[in-house]
Amino acid sequence: MMEITSDTRLSNPDINFRVSAGPGAGKTHWLVHHILEIIKQPERLGKNRKLACLTYTNIGADTVIRRLGAAASSCFVGTVHSFLYKNVVKPYIGLIAEQLDITPKKLEGYDDSVIGDFNFLKLWKEETQQTYLFDNNALVRALGATWWTLDKNKNIVLTNRPKKFIKVNGKSLKKGSALKYKQMAWKRGVFHPDDIFYFSIKLLNEYPIISKVLVAKFPYLFVDEFQDSNPLQVKIFQHFAEIGIFVGIIGDTAQSIYGFSGASPDDFKNFKSPRIQDYVIRQNRRSSNEIILLLNHIRADILQIPVRQVSMGVPELLVGTKQAALDYVKTRVLSEIIMLSRNNQTVQELRSPARKSGLPNLFAEMATRDSNFERRELVRITVTALVQAKNLGLAHAVRNLPKVLESSWGSEAARKYATVFLLEILEDYATYESFTLSQFIDYLRKDGSLSITGLTPGKSAKIFYDSYLFSDMANQVLADDKASNRTIHKSKGDEFENVLLFLDEEQVNILVKPEIFKLEEQRITYVAFSRARDRLFINVPILSDDQRKALPPVVSVKSV
């Protein structure tokens, strides 16, 4: 394995490569400059070919595009889903449409929402002879817990997600009934993110001409944060390498924290492509000397070298309540404090007064209270788009809008005028921000251009929409990543000057007995540690005497 820095340039880009680098190493910096070096050489791409750079988040893609500047026009930069959707599924789905009973013109994007309206589920129960499954809320969760993946023989199967097996009325779903849901959803024009991988593999396997087109169009394909790849994605990337695309992967096994989506650190280490070259970056351009000492205590495979060479104080382990820890940290730093937690429950405890007062998850509540799928999807996607437009920009916000406008305007008009529609209603944001959700629905219906079923007084949906404000739902939009407290998973790819991390007594064992490559929970904690640039504070409610004695000197302990 050859050691490089984030400023190293490869003399020959026509290779398959794997770059291993720890947190804060400048992986994106290296990748962007590697892309720029290729683009500078006209013979590499020519006039009609592009370089593909894939990430796992829209934020990651936006960062690469911003750093590439004008050179981004020579690239496809986006998520893995978007690349496969635009270059494999969307243009070629017609080849397998008949055998899967899909209407190609209904394929307008994809999202995670499970169809849960009464009539659809009633028909599904009748088709699968499971009319005894009367708990529709549990049924929606059970269907949402299934996905396409690979079995031990590397065959694509539809099964339950890792650690998710949900029974309905104490009964398991019949074999084959999850596939029936998929087929009925496709016929209705609803496609889920994992369907994109299933369709892609099916198309690539059955129609080799598609691979030839991809090789001609994208001679280079790079994947950032490869350790987040699930088995289907890894299979697709290996296929790309085998057909002649130069595939480069960048990642860190110690930051593999998406086991719930099937990702495994072994997939990065064991990725096979012809004559692959291995590189490692040992620098850490982000954190203070003391935080890097802590990170190096936890792992020995990549001992990081501090680039900033700044001393900001040893990370502090604060024993006491969350509020006491926060009060203490406020006395120690003057700039913003980002609070990280392992789960959403802790995040909600620390959120705004509206959340503390006991508001439920309104998106989940809406799915159970409103049986009209089209109406609640319009509310969900429109509210989300409005908040995203205000915080993340139009390009990200408008992605799913055409799907809910289609029933009113038709496919072509929905695609053409979705942005105009969003801009028009965005102008009235201050008006409906204080509306109840019922009033917001009336606002959307006011000019008659949208086909939205009205609300019936006394019914569950009407009571729900009367009970909450538009602003309540807007505050819960998950796209708002700028909150000062968030889950560790939501912080991935980001960095902060000061971090206050909330752990339990068990999670502190990463400091006493690091087993980062065996235990995903420890990798999650490691990722949280590595988000901090200057100061890191770790809060635990209690600490046993044995733990206190075994703690290494890379942290100092204080009771608060």
Care to describe what's here?
The chain is of the alpha/beta class. Helix 9 (193-206) runs parallel beside helix 11. The longest helix is centred in the last third of the chain and has 19 residues, at 373-391. Residues 352-357 have low confidence and may be disordered.
Concise synopsis of the structure shown:
This protein has 560 residues and is an alpha/beta fold.
Keywords:
560 residues; alpha/beta; 7-stranded parallel β-sheet; 6-stranded parallel β-sheet; 29 helices; globular
Q: What's the rounded overall pLDDT mean?
A: 90
Could you tell me the radius of gyration in angstroms?
A: 25 Å
Q: How many distinct helices?
A: 29
The portion of residues forming beta strands comes to 5-15%
Q: State the total count of DSSP E strands.
A: 17
Distance between the termini: 46 Å
What portion of residues is helical?
Answer: 40-55%
Strand ordering within the main sheet = 1-9-2-8-7-3-4
Write the layout of secondary structure elements.
Elements lengths: L1 E3 L12 E5 L5 H13 L2 H4 L5 E5 L2 H11 L6 E5 H13 L4 H4 L17 H11 L7 H9 L1 E5 L5 E5 L16 H12 L4 H14 L1 H10 L2 E4 L7 H12 L3 E6 L13 H5 L7 E5 L1 E2 L4 H10 L6 E2 L9 E4 L2 H11 L4 E5 L2 H7 L2 H4 L5 H8 L3 H19 L2 H4 L3 H9 L1 H16 L2 H4 L4 H9 L14 H8 L2 H6 L9 E3 H4 L4 E7 L6 H4 L7 H10 L2 E9 L4 H6 L5 E4 L1
Parallel strand pairs: 1-9, 2-8, 2-9, 3-4, 3-7, 7-8, 10-11, 12-16, 12-17, 13-14, 13-15, 15-16
Antiparallel strand pairs: 5-6
Helix pairs in contact: 4-9, 9-10, 9-11, 20-21
